[in-house]
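Format notes (please read before filing issues)

Several people have asked whether sequences and structure tokens are stored in separate files. They are not. Every record keeps both together, in the order shown below: the sequence lines, then the token lines. Line labels are part of the format and must not be stripped during preprocessing.
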Amino acid sequence: MLTAEKFMLEALREAEKDENEVPVGAVVVYEDRVIARAHNERERGDPFAHAEMLAMREASRVLGQRRLTGCTLYVTLEPCPMCAGALILSGVETCVFGAFDPAQGCCGSVYSLPEDPAFSHRVSCLGGVLEEKCAASLRRFFLNKRSRG
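Then the structure lines:
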């Protein structure tokens, strides 16, 4: 199994932890080991509690610094504008995501904020890793939500 797929599977497991949340999971990898993991917690009342934001915050705590130099974020859904901006500001080296988000994705779909030369730090982005598994998880969630009314 490829390294990117191995860590994306970790993010997928994280995504499935709360059936009331949109299933997005994230892990931060540093020196080939997971140092932080998180899933969406927005339904608990925090609009900023995206999986990526929570995982990056935890990684910063673990490393004891605000810069996530040398870190790779693996996330099941392409980051939104807020999370893409946080990738830049935190100094993450690479973002690897599963499903593309044609509505709000800012790592290549709608826009590529982390790779915009206007910013002093650029984040390399790679999308489509285990894309079908990541997209299927999201489809199941929304189908179940609609069927429950």
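For reference, the curators noted about this record: The first strand starts at residue 25 and ends at 30. The helical segments are 3-15, 51-63, 81-90, 131-148.
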